[in-house]
C-alpha cells in the first residue's frame, strides 16, 4: 500500500469545515442554546412549609378588678373604722367581693379575703358608729367608748 494514498471513504474527525474563502466573510455562527445553570446546592436542608395552626376561639379574660377592689375596700374599712366611716368601706367591699366572685371564679382566695375583711370592717365600723352615736347623748357611753378611741 502506498503511504500517500488516502482513503476516500474516510472522513476527518469533527464537524465539516467550509472552504477557507467562505470563512473570511462568513458571519459568526449564532450561539447554540445552553441549558440554564442550576443554582448551587446548599449543604443545609431546605425548610419545609408548615401551614399555620388555627387559633382557639377567643375567650374573654377574667376581670379580677372587682376582687382586688373588694380586698382593698375591706382593708380600708378596717383601718378607717375607728373614725366611724369604716362601715361605708365595709359595704362597698362586700359588694365588690360578691361581684368579683361572679366575674372571676378562679380568684377564690382573693374573693374570700375581700369578703372576710369587709365583714370585719362592717362590724367594727358599725360598732364604733353605734358607740359614737350614743356617746353624744349619754356621758356614760362616752366614758365607756374612750378606751376604744385611745387605742388608735
Rg value: 50 Å
String of helices and strands: HHHHH
- Total strand segments: 0
Biggest β-sheet description: none
Helical content class = 40-55%
Shape: rod-shaped
Strand content: under 5%
What's the mean pLDDT score?
A: 76
Can you count the helices?
A: 5
End-to-end gap:
141 Å
Low-confidence sequence ranges = none
- Alpha-beta classification: mainly alpha
Structural commentary:
- By secondary structure, this protein is mainly α.
- 53% of the residues lie in helices and 0% in strands.
- It contains five helices and no strands.
- The chain has helices at residues 20-25, 65-80, 86-103, 108-135, 139-151.
- Helix 2 (65-80) runs antiparallel to helix 3 (86-103).
- The radius of gyration is 50 Å and the shape is rod-shaped.
- The chain starts with 19 loop residues before the first helix and ends with a helix.
Task: Give a short summary of the structure.
Keywords: Membrane, Transmembrane, Transmembrane helix. With 152 residues, this protein is mostly helical.
Key attributes of the depicted protein:
single chain, mainly alpha, 0% strand
Topology (elements, then pairings):
Blueprint: H1 20-25, H2 65-80, H3 86-103, H4 108-135, H5 139-151
Helix pairs in contact: 2-3, 2-4, 3-4, 4-5
Biased composition (Low complexity): 20-36
Region (Disordered): 1-61
Organism: Massiliimalia timonensis
Amino acid at each position: 500500500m502506498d503511504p500517500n494514498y488516502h482513503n476516500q471513504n474516510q472522513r476527518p474527525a469533527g464537524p465539516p469545515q467550509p472552504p477557507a474563502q467562505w470563512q473570511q466573510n462568513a458571519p459568526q455562527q449564532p450561539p447554540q442554546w445552553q441549558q440554564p445553570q442550576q443554582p448551587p446546592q446548599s449543604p443545609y436542608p431546605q425548610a419545609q412549609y408548615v401551614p399555620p395552626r388555627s387559633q382557639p376561639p377567643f375567650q374573654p379574660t377574667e376581670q379580677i378588678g372587682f376582687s382586688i377592689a373588694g380586698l382593698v375596700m375591706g382593708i380600708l374599712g378596717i383601718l378607717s373604722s375607728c373614725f366611724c366611716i369604716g362601715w361605708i368601706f365595709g359595704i362597698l367591699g362586700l359588694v365588690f367581693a360578691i361581684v368579683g366572685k361572679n366575674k372571676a371564679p378562679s380568684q377564690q382566695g382573693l374573693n374570700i379575703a375581700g369578703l372576710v375583711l369587709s365583714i370585719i370592717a362592717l362590724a367594727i365600723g358599725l360598732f364604733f358608729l353605734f358607740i359614737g352615736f350614743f356617746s353624744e347623748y349619754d356621758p356614760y357611753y362616752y366614758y365607756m367608748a374612750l378606751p376604744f378611741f385611745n387605742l388608735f
